[in-house]
Amino acid sequence: MENNAPFWNDSVGYIIYPETFCDGNGDGVGDIPGIVSKLDYLKELGVNLLWICPLFASPMDDNGYDVSDYYKINPLYGTEEDFKKLLEEAHKRGLRIVVDFVLNHTSDEHPWFQKALSDPSSPERGYYFFRKGVRQGDQLLPPNNWKGFFSTSVWENVEGTDDFYMHIFSKKMPDVDWSNPELRQRYYEIARHYLDMGVDGFRLDALAHLAKDLSFASSSLPADENGLVYDTSRFSNRPEVLDYLLEFKKEVLAPKHAFSIGEVGGGVSPEEALRYCDRQSGPINMVFNFDTAWCNGAYGSIDKNDEEIFTDVLELKRNFMRWYDACHEKADMPLYWCNHDHPRVLSQYGSTKYRNESAKALATILLFFYGTPFIYNGDEIGMSNAEYAKPEDFFRDVSTKNEVLSLRARGYSDAQITHYLCRTSRANARTPMQWNHEENAGFGKKIAVNALNENYKEGVNVLDQMKDPWSIINFFQYAILKRREPEINDIVLHGKLHILDFNHPDVLAYMHEGKENLVVIASLRPYETYFSFYHMIRDVVLHNYGDVLLKDHVFTLRPFECFLLKV
Ligand code: NOJ
């Protein structure tokens, strides 16, 4: 380990979804006092870098990603005093806090937007994208045919006028115009405010979308049944984003030595991403991509049968390696399987039948790959998808709600839609955290949002698992401890990594060559498979079965069997 290495090179991250993490005041919604009460738990688990989803005042149309006052803590979550206490208590325990900074859009209830609506000649009007619609006979059409991320046009009419404002997410989340220098300064002030309070850095939400194609010309790509075109190139990863971020770095991040991790999403190649996070020239420290999150055909899979959804292990390996090849020794890389925007990884790539085995295999793959791992709350006990019974059960998530409306309009039945949502909706990862097997899974006195998964009664909870030496949580704790051992960390970050038996369709295995050689072997199948292995095993560091089946240089791997070996 280099002595002057930044703290995130020696960190294991943990993602907290505050609404359903832990309820401290008994109102049925998670909150900051609830998080504070779990800091000892997190410290003991071994993580040390907490990314907490937005905590700021919000009407909660998109559960906090629609901010109505950046300077105020969401009263649902607590007060500024609570937030300061969180920082203090976390820092006392050596845990860093990364706050989610939403800077591509505000809530439509934010005073800037309200002012922009009420006074078209105000400076705030220039903080947003207002454009005239097109009159066609007695119809008023939006300024162009762009479709946003939440299944609707990116344009919403301002009632009683010909004006529309742009929103690439929900209509209650108007996009702000980063080409406006005054707007940028407003965001820098907010960032400084939180850095002065002591936060360690920011997860920069929807960062890739800060710049738009300001010609606002319609896209000529194929349109959907409503004439809308999902052409994200019009508002994603455009070159001006880098200019904005370089300024942000110079004016705010660098002087305050703040950590920054940006969400760049689907469409960006690793080489493009390097422009953001190259250690020498990039404006930010890391970027999250989605490439390893959907390698099972589930995305958009409403017309597929369950048999068609299975982990594409080769695709996973290709994606991991594309990012490794581009980033190793040039850029730091975050690793994650799941966050609040994806279904649970156990339901994506693992198996509820082999919950214990598959949760451990997935943990091992993630924790020992090159990069800084981020664990999503609940993955350490093997939480799985929600198993809701009807589309409305998922409606707390506005993106799922819009998708349901659009699928119903296309003629799908509620049964088909529910089946699909149980597989894909991000609401699956937003059920309350399961702390014990008692009432409400120990989340709090009641539950006001997102019903629980009943499997907390069957051992999928923290307390029961802590008592079981072979549990998922104890495996995570030991694996994190190993991952943070300086010698292992050094090999993981600086060793030369290659995939073993790349063409094996069922097994993901890799080796780091360093002072010692570290090997991960993990089956991603619910059936037995074989794996040839010719290296001399010096130590079995992690394993999720009681005995080893190795004969004539061939492992027999049982469902989701995994190893971390020193060879
Ligand atoms: C990404 C966030 O992770 C997601 O939850 C949110 O809906 C969008 N950005 C919009 O802020």
Describe this structure in words.
By secondary structure, the protein is α/β, with parallel strands linked by helices. The protein has four domains: 7-104 and 181-390 and 428-476, Alpha-Beta Barrel (TIM Barrel); 111-166, Oligo-1,6-glucosidase, domain 2 (Alpha-Beta Complex), CATH 3.90.400.10; 391-424, no CATH class; 494-566, Golgi alpha-mannosidase II (Immunoglobulin-like), CATH 2.60.40. 27% of the residues lie in helices and 18% in strands. The chain has 15 helices and 23 strands. Strands 13-12-11-5-2-1-15-14 form an eight-stranded parallel beta sheet, covered by helices on one side. The protein has a five-stranded antiparallel beta sheet with strand order 16-17-18-23-20. A hairpin with a 7-residue loop joins strand 16 and strand 17. Helix 5 (181-197) crosses helix 6 and helix 10 packs parallel to helix 14 (472-483). It starts with 12 loop residues before the first strand and ends with a strand. Bound molecules: 1-deoxynojirimycin (NOJ).
CATH class of the largest domain: Alpha Beta
Strand content: 15-25%
Extract low-pLDDT stretches: none
Q: Provide the domain count.
A: 4
The shape, in one word, is: globular
Helical residues, percent? 25-40%
Short recap of the structure:
The chain has 567 residues and is an alpha/beta fold. It has helices spanning 32-37, 39-45, 80-92, 111-118, 181-197, 240-253, 270-277, 313-327, 345-348, 355-367, 398-409, 414-424, 462-466, 472-483, 486-494, and strands at residues 13-16, 49-52, 56-57, 69-73, 96-102, 130-132, 134-136, 139-141, 155-157, 163-166, 201-205, 259-265, 286-289, 334-336, 372-376, 496-499, 507-513, 517-523, 529-532, 539-543, 550-551, 554-557, 562-566. It has four domains: 7-104 and 181-390 and 428-476, TIM Barrel (Alpha-Beta Barrel), CATH 3.20.20; 111-166, Oligo-1,6-glucosidase, domain 2; 391-424, no CATH class; 494-566, Immunoglobulin-like, CATH 2.60.40.1180.
